Amino acid sequence: FLYFPETDGISFRIQITVKELLDTDVLLKLLFHLPVNYPSTVPDISVNSDQLTRAQCMDVKDKLLEQAKKHLSEPMVHDLILWIQQHLKDVIKQSATVCNEKTTLSKGASTEDGIWMLLLHLDHMRAKAKYVKTVEKWASDLRLTGRLMFMGKIILILLQGDRSSIKEYLILQKTSKVDVDSSGKKCKEKMMSVLCETEVQSQHKRFQKFEVKEYSTLKELQKEFETAGLTALFSEFVPPLLK
Q: Does the record carry Cytoplasm as a key word (predicted)?
């Protein structure tokens, strides 16, 4: 596994293989972010696997969080890993059953979480081409839409998608070496601000894809926000960045 010390906690990235599940080996990629008050608080967990669907990964994550709540106030990561190795088959079977039940529900009766939106401000990008490529890949992998926006010295990332994917993106952004420092060494993003994280409202337009765009004037950037029904978001967060 990989270990990332953080000022706001610690992150672990662990890969485990579960043998002979559904006649194939399943490689689970788990990311645990332990907050500073862990284990009094459950960790943030993200789950990825090429052998499982996104919905199945979400079910695995939900079950791990359920288990984590049973271990509050005691170290739990090792126990959670052992638990999922023993119970993954049952979680996947249950997931398939739930999935079949959901297809019989009308859309109006769906209890699915709404779409969320995240606005980030980056101070700078030294290795711009590599950084942009990384952000594009994360957005694609997590099925997030939105914009990476450059206007003068302002760099903004606006994302829309499932709340779990938004949270997963934030963990990646904080824990991965995405840029280089002044001496050219790979480094993590230390100067990122979360300007806004909120549920997408009915007046907001949904972005159909993720795009990287450059704007020559503030007016052009403002128009991008206005077109997406995000005029208030622009007024509140973008002009102060110019001061």
A: yes
